[in-house]
Amino acid sequence: MSKSLPQSSILRVIGASSLGTLIEWYDFYIFGSLATIIGSQLFPEDAGASALINTLAIFAAGFIVRPFGALVFGRLGDLIGRKHTFLLTLVLMGGSTFLIGLIPSYKSIGYAAPILVLILRLVQGLALGGEYGGAATYVAEHAPSGKRGFFTSWIQTTATLGLFLSLGVIVISKNMIGSGAFADWGWRIPFLLSILLVGVSVYIRLRMHESPLFSKLKAEGKVAANPLKESFSKKTNFKMVLLALFGATMGQGVIWYTGQFYAQSFLENTCKLDFNVSRYILLWAIAFATPFFVVFGALSDRFGRKWIMLLGMLGGILLYRPIYQQFLDDTDVTTVSNSQVLEVSEPQTEIKPLGNSQQSLRMRKQVYHLASGMTYLKTETDTLKGGQSISAAQAVSYSDKTLPDGVFWKFVGLITLQVLFVTMVYGPIAAFLVELFPTRIRYTSMSLPYHIGNGVFGGLVPFIATLIASFPGATPLSGLWYPIGIAALSFVIGAVYLNNRQEENVND
Amino acid sequence: MNQLKKLLGLVWMALGPAAIIFLAGQAYEKTSLAAEGSERTNTALQWGIILFIFIPICAGLVIFGYYAVKGAYDRLPADSGEAS
């Protein structure tokens, strides 16, 4: 459609839609990127691993309600129009993000803190559930036929760029105010900053016009009376919703969240890389790979959407385990011999009382510098009672690892490869979904499979993978069976049931 | 290919209930293994969330399989208008 639209108008449509969506993703991901710090702020200090798991649960809750947001706002978008609906989602998202930045810590208000954050996180999830489908539909309904994959792929870059922006703001804030202040209060900065970004985006979106296809439908009086009923009670449409979910978005979701979220979580929490190093690696990888969203979006206009998406899934299925094994091997310092150590810092001893008991924890910390260029912090911990150690053996842990240049860039390359898989599955998917459903129920129909695939299957990757890896007998790589299994199932369904068609005209 | 679609439909129909049974078994086992108190509550909550979310999705997989067995995917719509 819209062959008559001038190039500048189309660029404005893409720019305004993408900016708002990017900011929504930014809002959504700062929570995930700061999960560890937020866990320590919202839960009792001695909660340990359960604080992280609970925070991930809150994080996951934001994902789980995304399909409900898709239903609520998708319905609105098919009833009152795309423009006003995704303006509303933007305001809801920005407001809730800003408020998260204002919530007092557990020390100040107790369990009210995690409860309030959970409520705001649910609002964020609902808003995001309504945003993406609106933006993708809006751009697709402006795009000329034969270029729908290319134009909508710009919307597809926003999720990754939102993550990039969130990581960038976090790293810059932390470097400016220092680690201690950042963990104490500085983590609020990225949340509070959101209000400015949303203000700019709301201003831009207010100046946009309604989608031409929806306007035409409205003028002709053909707007769906009950989009939910039409989407899910008619077998002809519902079967396509199920196919989109199981044959595409389910696999796409786990590939996205493994490559860009679980990877960083794995480097930080399993490989014990330094906070900044794990984020720098991801930032570089995203910077290198992001242009490929547009490349694969454009290629899907030429070769079809199906096989590009499925090849991205196959890449993850075959290569995740070797990639993550490499991460483990290259950060393993348990076998370091004395001859490899260049320098060891003077030991620093910390003693922490254990609650109200007579016992305390003694931690002896030393920084090791290896000849290879790697550094790490070795912590030996034992329990004291009356000043005497009562531990059978000292617990030794290694953390805050930094990498030699060669290994750092190798890790950047391995994450870039994972993000390339993401660009293959994610670049063409907006065009793929738009072409499956008719205009009158498009917003509702495409939003639901997208958000179940991404919000539920994808969003739960860090949570479920961490849970699986904590099972008795599990190895650090056990968590990968979840994304590999889901992607393999989606690959088989997609390969057998999807066709490779591209639709010339979505004006129906 | 249509025969394969139908045969795999039976697999999807079986996979849905199998996944629910597996998840419910895991939920019971992990919750029982957790220490009493807040750890058990946390574990039960986490598995409760997982079951709440995945049971409807497994039901969707069964419906998908049923449609496949009935030949609903033998010929996909030629354009999005046909899907309405």
TrEMBL record, chain A:
Its taxonomic path starts at: Bacteria, Pseudomonadati, Bacteroidota, Sphingobacteriia, Sphingobacteriales
Q: Name one GO cellular component term.
A: plasma membrane
What InterPro entries has UniProt attached to this entry? MFS_dom, MFS_sugar_transport-like, MFS_trans_sf, Sugar_transporter_CS
Protein known as? MFS transporter
The GO terms describing molecular function are: transmembrane transporter activity
Query: Could you tell me the membrane topology recorded for this protein?
Result: Multi-pass membrane protein
Q: Does the keyword Membrane apply?
A: yes
Which ranges does the record mark as transmembrane?
49-73, 85-103, 109-129, 150-173, 185-206, 240-259, 279-300, 307-324, 407-434, 455-474, 480-498
Main localisation:
membrane
Report whether Cell membrane shows up as a keyword of the record.
yes
Protein localization = Cell membrane
**Annotated ranges, domain Major facilitator superfamily (MFS) profile:** 13-502
Query: Which UniProt key words apply to this protein?
Result: Cell membrane, Membrane, Transmembrane, Transmembrane helix, Transport
UniProtKB/TrEMBL annotation, chain B:
- For this protein, the parts annotated as crossing the membrane are 7-27, 47-69
Please give one Pfam family short name.
DUF6814
Q: What are the alphabetically sorted keywords of the record?
A: Membrane, Transmembrane, Transmembrane helix
- Protein name listed in UniProt: Uncharacterized protein
Species = Pedobacter yulinensis
- Print the organism lineage: Bacteria, Pseudomonadati, Bacteroidota, Sphingobacteriia, Sphingobacteriales
